[in-house]
């Protein structure tokens, strides 16, 4: 289930492209009345190497709590997710697809996750897609969020989320189920070849700390879920986070870890914080 959660986070990373930012994953937040500095870090939810650099570990040491997109340390998270996996209005995957495409997806799922599409007929199609995300890696699955949580626990610090499972899952009710189903079919037709290539490219861009390049890649992707739903997937969520972040870091120095695609762009977290009067500087 944790792999699914990381996959959902990955899928939920759209973007808005704007002014050029420095190549950095770690950003220091100061000024505007803050008594102590907080930090903003761009994560990647699935990777082959989740090792953190020394400056990131030091930032974790200099803060007193960790905020991720979701409180991934919450033991009730799996139950919460199960409540929101089903499509509304009694829609079915078998009715969204042609008989030919449904059969194609069914065979694809049987070969890759050893389960029939019939088991997921009522699930939101993107849920089925995310179950295949670990298959895109040619290495054992790792997550930056897991590493951040491990260090925070060693420091006896609390872990929180900027949004609830319900809020995040509700996003995928705003994206037409037909589009979600279409992307699942595309994945089955390419038999993950294209998806693996894109994942490898994204990991390389992330390793180069190129958050602008990461956004550019997503913008140019033919995946309609991310490319055509930037407001729902990214911009609206960023705007919702800002007042929470301001309140949180005004109380105590905080390390915020969110998908790197949320950082850049005119309506990205960095620019939105700067508009509120905070200094947000790349940490080299």
Automatic annotation (TrEMBL):
Superkingdom field: Bacteria
Signal peptide: none
Pfam families hit by this protein: TraB_PrgY_gumN (PF01963)
InterPro entries, sorted: TraB/PrgY/GumN_fam (IPR002816), YbaP-like (IPR047111)
PANTHER family given in the database record: CYTOPLASMIC PROTEIN, CYTOPLASMIC PROTEIN-RELATED
Protein name: TraB/GumN family protein
């Amino acid at each position: 289930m944790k792999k699914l959660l990381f996959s959902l986070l990955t899928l939920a990373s759209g973007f808005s492209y704007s002014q050029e930012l420095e190549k950095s994953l770690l950003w220091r937040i100061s000024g505007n009345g803050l008594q102590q500095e907080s930090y903003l870090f761009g994560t990647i939810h699935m990777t082959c190497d989740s090792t953190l650099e020394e400056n990131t570990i030091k930032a974790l040491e200099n803060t007193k709590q960790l905020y991720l997109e979701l409180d991934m340390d919450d033991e009730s998270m799996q139950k919460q997710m199960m409540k929101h996996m089903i499509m509304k209005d009694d829609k079915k995957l078998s009715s969204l697809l042609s008989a030919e495409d449904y059969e194609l997806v069914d065979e694809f799922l049987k070969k890759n996750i050893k389960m029939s599409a019939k088991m997921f007929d009522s699930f939101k199609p993107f849920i089925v897609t995310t179950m295949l995300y670990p298959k895109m890696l040619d290495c054992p699955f790792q997550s930056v969020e897991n590493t951040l949580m491990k260090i925070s626990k060693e420091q006896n610090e609390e872990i929180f989320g900027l949004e609830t499972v319900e809020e995040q899952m509700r996003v995928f009710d705003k994206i037409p189920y037909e589009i979600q189903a279409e992307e699942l079919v595309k994945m089955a037709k390419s038999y993950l070849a294209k998806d693996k290539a894109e994942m490898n490219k994204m990991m390389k861009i992330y390793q180069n700390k190129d958050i602008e390049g990461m956004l550019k890649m997503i913008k140019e992707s033919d995946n309609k879920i991310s490319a055509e739903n930037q407001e729902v997937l990214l911009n609206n969520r960023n705007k919702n986070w800002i007042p929470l972040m301001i309140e949180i870091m005004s109380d105590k120095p905080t390390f915020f870890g969110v998908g790197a695609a949320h950082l850049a762009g005119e309506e990205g977290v960095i620019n939105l914080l700067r508009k509120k009067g905070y200094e947000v500087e790349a940490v080299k």
